[in-house]
């Protein structure tokens, strides 16, 4: 029987061919990714070698490109995603030699890391990641991410967090039902995944809940920022450091 993670990956597979087109129609989407990637890279400890980074929930590679732009073409970046369709879109693009992709769940990161990196990474980036992880597995997933980052390294997570804010929930619902879902129908982009998107954001951790998860994983120096434009107060980026 397919697991919830497998079924969700199948839905993303169906959405993959039109995913980049739909994100391009979202004002601020790419700018927010680039800003979060720059914030992460700017905090990494200075080393003699180019940084090594995880891109968790990399999808079609849009966040991977943001990391390449921020860290430089010599960086070692491993993109991980559960959707074969999304990864196929990523792998059709042109990448520097240090970029690679692997199909796996974020929950499986410890096992995947043994095969793809020679030790902990300098940092990890996860855009729109944790709300796709079952609630009862989120603490373990955050802990696994922290374990795969070297002491002094940083983790950046970007996602929509609207729980506890009626105004943010109203904006999110209006955008989903008034803009995103109709556009997905117009471009034949698997509207069911965008209905899931609406629901998953409403059910996602609040910023306070996510901060508590980060702290339970032993991460420190937690800082939050929110995007501009229509995403202000809905889209947030959190950065946290693994202590030395």
TrEMBL record:
Extract the InterPro entries matched here. Methyltransf_25, SAM-dependent_MTases_sf
Fetch the Gene3D superfamilies from UniProt.
Vaccinia Virus protein VP39
Q: Name one GO molecular function term.
A: methyltransferase activity
Q: Which domain of life is it from?
A: Bacteria
Q: Where is the Methyltransferase domain?
A: 55-153
Q: What is the lineage of its organism?
A: Bacteria, Bacillati, Actinomycetota, Actinomycetes, Propionibacteriales
Keywords annotated in UniProt: Methyltransferase, Transferase
Question: What is the name of the protein in this document?
Answer: Methyltransferase domain-containing protein
| Organism of this sequence | Aeromicrobium erythreum
- Does the keyword Transferase feature in the UniProt annotation? yes
Pfam families per UniProt:
Methyltransf_25
Tell me the GO BP annotations in alphabetical order.
methylation
